[in-house]
Write a structure and sequence with these properties.
This protein is 68% helix and 0% strand. It is mainly alpha-helical. It has two domains: 1-175, no CATH class; 189-351, no CATH class.
Length: 351
């Protein structure tokens, strides 16, 4: 799809809609992070996409919701004796998280309907936007799949880390798609850059995306609150229990030591790689994008260390998560910007 494929007026309105969706997805990511950090995610034990939009409106309704929560292992093992006011605190976090999701779905559906009515969805744009909306619907189902891992007959007192990672990474993917579509509808010019610069931008984006997934695993296991010294881990360069005998290879995904160590190591690799790319390609058309990316990665690494040393309190952890999302999106922009004439020539049928 090219900018010239649709009218400037249509492109402008669709881009505004994409900005609104992007901001809402960014907000739900942050609220989702707060929901996890306050252990609020299991406070609503049912998935009611429509009727659940209304919160409890009476004391009897609040007690009914509270009784459902008291049947979970989380309440029985960690929150036994919780007061109703304490339950309401965690309930509002989860309800707010789901409410933003409903609002995103409504804005997405209404926007698409208006654009279709105005006949602005030609040149394949309609299918792309439908795909985006389908990802949003899938995200709602994945969200319940995640929550269900911590309720019912399960012995868990929190959601499964794998499912948390899947839920978070799908939200990030949706934001990446929104950003890419927004850029495609813009009048920004792509840069004609050396192949090495273009490939470096792609490698950095892939590594950052993997790092965000690794961070979600660390969060899901509360591994960031396990080893809170730096640069060592409990005084060791390499953690003694990197591989747990009972977990085996699963230690890479379920062990607190392995997940935190791997998250640290990948951070160092990305940090060094971004600084090297900014220096190596400072004389190319991608110099600004790579310089800003190196700055964002540096800020994220330093803030991550600060968050770790303070055992990941709510405020620091949310900034770390939010800055990670911004860094990912800037890496997306760098890759998009690098797709100039040389990239197009390399992928043309005559090449």
């Amino acid at each position: 799809m090219t900018t010239s494929a649709i009218s400037p007026v249509a492109a402008a309105w669709i881009r505004r809609w994409l900005i609104l969706l992007g901001l809402m997805v960014y907000a739900i990511i942050l609220v989702g992070g707060a929901t996890r950090l306050t252990d609020s995610g299991l406070s609503i034990t049912e998935w009611r996409p429509v009727s659940g939009a209304l919160p409890p409106m009476s004391e009897a309704a609040w007690m009914a919701e509270f009784d459902k929560y008291r049947s979970t292992k989380q309440y029985q093992l960690t929150n036994s004796g919780m007061a109703l006011s304490e339950f309401q605190f965690i309930y509002w976090w989860e309800w707010g998280h789901r409410q933003i999701g409903r609002a995103i779905g409504l804005v997405a559906a209404l926007g698409f309907a208006v654009f279709a009515w105005r006949r602005w969805l030609g040149q394949g744009l309609g299918w792309k936007l439908l795909g985006l909306i389908a990802l949003g619907g899938l995200q709602g189902a994945i969200g319940w799949w995640m929550v269900s891992s911590g309720i019912g007959e399960t012995e868990r007192i929190s959601v499964a880390p794998y499912r948390l990672m899947t839920h978070f990474m799908l939200a990030l993917l949706i934001l990446v798609v929104v950003t890419w579509l927004w850029l495609d509808l813009s009048r920004r010019a792509k840069a004609d850059v050396p192949k090495a610069a273009r490939q470096s931008a792609k490698v950095l984006l892939i590594l950052i995306f993997i790092q965000m997934a690794a961070g979600a695993l660390v969060a899901g296991l509360d591994a960031g609150r396990t080893y809170t010294d730096w640069p060592l881990m409990a005084g060791e360069v390499f953690p003694a229990h990197y591989i747990h005998a009972e977990l085996g290879i699963r230690s890479f995904f379920e062990g607190r030591e392995a997940t935190q160590f791997n998250h640290r190591l990948l951070a160092y690799i990305i940090w060094a790689g971004s600084l090297a790319a900014a220096w190596m390609f400072r004389g190319t058309g991608l110099r600004r994008e790579l310089a800003v990316l190196a700055g964002l990665v540096s800020a994220q690494a330093i803030w991550g260390i600060l968050t770790l040393l303070n055992a990941a309190p709510l405020g620091l952890a949310l900034v770390h998560q939010g800055l990670g999302v911004v860094t990912t999106l800037w890496a997306v922009y760098a890759v998009w910007r690098a797709g100039g004439p040389k990239a197009a020539e390399a992928t043309s049928p005559s090449a």
